[in-house]
Amino acid sequence: MNIIESEIPYLVEARTCGCKERGRSVSYHFVESAHSLCLGKGELILAQIQACERLLKYVKSKEDMQLLRDELSKLKLVLDLIRY
How many other β-carbons are positioned within 10 Å of the β-carbon of residue 60? Predict the structure, then answer.
């Protein structure tokens, strides 16, 4: 039996990237690569929502704040569609 316990409380980290000319977007990456192999669609989207909510606490620019709010609304809609 292998028991692996992570000390990292979050699975996914979110970042804003891009520029005004090309458009800004949110990018995600796994904190630990082992989790990318065993997540379902709902779990992955929920992890992205949590990552966006954490990032939203630290954002200072209004453009990034609006970008994250839009991303959160889209992710929540997709999560609702997957669940029902």
Answer: 6
> pTM of this prediction?
0.79
- Count the neighbouring beta carbons within 10 Å of the beta carbon of residue 14: 21
Range 57-63 contact pairs with CB under 8 angstroms and sequence separation of 24 or more: 59/16, 63/24
Task: Give per-residue pLDDT as tens, 6-54.
Answer: 555 678 899 998 887 788 899 988 887 665 567 788 888 999 999 999 9
DSSP-derived secondary structure for 11-74: SEEEEEEEETTTEEEEEEEESSGGGGGS--HHHHHHHHHHHHHHHHTT--SHHHHHHHHHHHHH
Cα distance between residue 43 and residue 18, in whole Å? 26
